[in-house]
Amino acid sequence: MVNVNDTDALIIVDVQNDFCSGGSLPVPDAELIIDPINRLQRFFDYLYFSRDWHPNDHCSFRDNPHFDEGCWPSHCVQNSPGAEFHGDMRIPVDATIIDKATTAEKDAYSAFDGTDLSTRLERRKTKRVFVVGLALDFCVKATALDALQNGFKAFVIRNATRAVFPENEAAVYAELQAAGVELIDSEDLS
Fold first, then answer.
1. How many domains does the chain have?
2. Mean of the pLDDT values across residues 14-36?
3. CA 147, 15, 154 angle in degrees (round to 5)?
4. 120 close to 48: Cβ distance less than 8 angstroms
């Protein structure tokens, strides 16, 4: 059992329409994590919702002729329906929204990359972060690993995340554990 304390934070990564069914880059079974995430929120005083918030000419878009590194379909374009949080996600009024990858030239998988998330957590004396959301094999993994690099103890809640490539889940979990991230399920929290 993991006892959540009043300085712990829940980081909810990219549960946006474009990563769910009908979106431009759907993660298999993405909707299955929404109910667990909504239930997890009651344990935490501090909730951080990250979102991809790309300009329409973002470097990660494979149809962008100005950048060679683009490998994804256009997704989560600023102020578009695809960039909105999934309609079933509970987002409290006092939750903090973290926008990432907001310029055309730079991609960012981690909610820490190019944002003030670490500073916000430090101000609140946070020592432990619990990471959930989409997608395990990219943004959730990068956020958990960056949490460690920023001096936080990191947990990934397995039943509240899904991978773009489900066949890679075991390898991603092994990588996270080897780095020092703790893997738990939502039932392990009290």
1. 1
2. 97
3. 20
4. yes
Per the structure, the complete domain to which residue 104 belongs is given by 9-52+84-188
Q: Is residue 25 part of a domain?
A: yes
- Residues of the chain above pLDDT 90, percent: 82
Nearest-angstrom CA–CA distance, 37 and 170: 21
Angle between helices 141-149 and 169-179 in degrees, nearest 10: 10
- The CATH number linked to 182 is 3.40.50.850
- Residue the block writes with tokens 């431009």: 24
- Give catalytic residue positions: 14, 100, 139
pLDDT tens digits, one per residue of 111-151? 999 999 999 999 999 999 999 999 999 999 999 999 999 99
* Domain assignment of residue 76, yes or no: no
Structural domain contains residue 171: yes
CA angle 37, 127, 86 (to 5 degrees): 20
- Determine, yes or no, domain membership for 95: yes
User: Looking at residue 60, what is its pLDDT?
Assistant: 78
Q: How far is CA 140 from CA 72, 77, 155, in A?
A: 17, 19, 10
Nearest to 128 by CA among 189, 73, 74: 189
Six token digits for residue 5? 């304390």
